[in-house]
From TrEMBL:
Transmembrane segments: none annotated. InterPro entries: DegV (IPR003797), DegV_domain_contain (IPR050270). This is DegV family EDD domain-containing protein. Keywords: Lipid-binding. PANTHER family: DEGV DOMAIN-CONTAINING PROTEIN DR_1986-RELATED, FATTY ACID-BINDING PROTEIN TM_1468. The keyword Transcription does not apply. May bind long-chain fatty acids, such as palmitate, and may play a role in lipid transport or fatty acid metabolism. PROSITE patterns: DEGV. GO terms for molecular function: lipid binding. It comes from Lentilactobacillus parabuchneri. The keyword Zinc does not apply. It comes from the Bacteria.
Length: 93
């Protein structure tokens, strides 16, 4: 059995942690003043707080596009993973 672990950027794992435990992290879309950023990719934590100070409205988040998740799971299957444990926040948290 080959198990893949997937989570999203709300886990705030370090590169060292993701490398050590072979965890795949999916960026969460963050919308600030109508512009969408992928957390951890085109928006760092420092940039987020800088933008938050100057934002007209409170930022919101979205879920990753379902197509990207399907592509990720298919890619993991192609790499020989037969089980995926995918850990994410619920919308009610």
């Amino acid at each position: 059995m080959k198990i893949a672990i997937v989570t999203d950027s709300t886990a705030y794992l370090t590169k060292e942690e993701t490398d050590k435990y072979n965890i795949t992290v999916v960026p969460i879309p963050v919308i600030i003043d109508g512009r969408e950023y992928n957390e951890g990719i085109d928006l760092t934590t420092t940039e987020f707080y800088d933008k938050l100070k100057n934002s007209q409205a409170f930022p919101s988040t979205s879920q990753p596009p379902i197509g990207e998740m399907i592509d990720l799971y298919n890619s993991l299957a192609d790499k020989g993973y037969d089980t995926v444990i995918s850990i994410h926040l619920a919308s009610t948290i």
